[in-house]
Amino acid sequence: xRTAPVIPVxxxxxxxxxxxxxxxxxxxxxxxxxxxxxxxxALEAIRAMxxxxxxxxxxxxxxxxxxxxxxxxxxxxxxxxxxxxxPLAKAATREGVPFLPGIANAGDIMRGLDLGLQHxxxxxxxxxxxxxxxxxxxxxxxxxxxxxxxxxxxxxxxxWLAFDPVLCVxxxxxxxxxxxxxxxxxxxxxxxxxxxx
Length: 197
Description:
Blueprint: E1 6-10, H1 18-27, E2 32-36, H2 42-49, E3 56-60, H3 65-73, E4 79-81, H4 86-95, E5 99-103, H5 106-114, E6 119-122, H6 130-138, E7 145-148, H7 157-161, E8 169-171, H8 182-193
Helix pairs in contact: 1-2, 1-8
């Protein structure tokens, strides 16, 4: 979460795009890449992206223990989930893999703390009340750090990053799903990498 200010949230339909996309993002300074398990190509894309020098590749949209096992088998170096369940959290802890579960309310955070977690994905960030909601949630939980995801854009990312408990943000704007122009992706990544400065 401290490696780069923005974690690209990546949806891969075509494995052929995986390596050039990862190379463009890393060249732009975004080395932590979250490949969502939303497509049949996701696990193969993780394997391919792992070969890109400097890339730290993890799996997103992990919702159960089988997906966790598949993601780890593909070489995922971290796990992101849209929510927080005890079985998934315990399995990730048992595997010793960095785990970023989604939270949207105080009960989620308290359940996470009970499971020994202090780092959370605030999701869906904008739909769950935006920055005012996270500020209210973070106040009683000073030990917690957050990665807001969901509705974060180039226009509002800096505002989120200026809030101290936010270590990074997740965003799909740096890695558009349509067949990307990799020169443009690298330039967008460069702008995103400067957001935290």
